[in-house]
Amino acid sequence: MTADDERLIDWAAVTRGATLGLGVLAAVSVTDAVLDHSFAHYRNSGWRAVLFVVILVGYLIAGWTAGHLVPDAGLSNGALAGIGSVVAWIPVRVAIWLVRDTGVGLFHGTRAPLVPSQVFGTLVISAGIAMLGGHLGARAAARAGRSSP
Questions:
Q1: Which of 13, 16, 37, 132 has the smallest set of CB atoms within 10 Å of its CB?
Q2: Does the residue 129 lie in any domain?
Q3: Cα gap 122→29, rounded to integer Å
Q4: Taking the mean position of all CA atoms in its chain, how far away is CA 4?
Q5: DSSP state of 11
């Protein structure tokens, strides 16, 4: 890795994007828990699809923010922002699990909230969608005539 490569990762931009993504993920997680508690047939309702789309938009926002702030490395900063939002979301998900006390294990059982394969899949999806957001944010910055600091 050269000195130029090291400057392409802007941790402030990644943190800002991850924080915005985390805000969306946390809001969706709380909404999901409230709806699950309120509706008898929530698991079969259309709300789950709507909330999934909102999560994807959250990854896109995380990546767009990081990519817009560092247009020369929108993909890498966007991917890191998406992954960062998921990693920061895990304690929120554990807290919701602790508050709800559903009687299932954290990593195993029929409805475990953090199945390792699902966490891995979430990281991959978040990185991919956030890279798209990073690319779009970098293009928007380029159209505005900005380049990375």
A1: 37
A2: yes
A3: 14
A4: 27
A5: H
Task: Establish if 47 belongs to a structural domain.
Answer: yes
Residue 42's domain comprises 3-143
Q: Length of the chain, please?
A: 149
Q: What are 106-126's pLDDT values in tens digits?
A: 555 556 677 788 899 999 999
Check whether 137 has a pLDDT greater than 70: yes
Nearest to 23 by CA among 68, 55, 47: 55
Q: Number of folded domains in the chain?
A: 1
Examine residue 148 and state whether it is found in any structural domain, yes or no: no
Q: Tell me, what amino acid is at 121?
A: G
Q: What is the pTM of this model?
A: 0.84
* 52-61: burial string, b at 16+ Cβ within 10 Å, e else: eeebbbbbbb
Residue 149 inside a domain? The answer is no
Q: What is residue 61's predicted lDDT score, i.e. its pLDDT?
A: 97
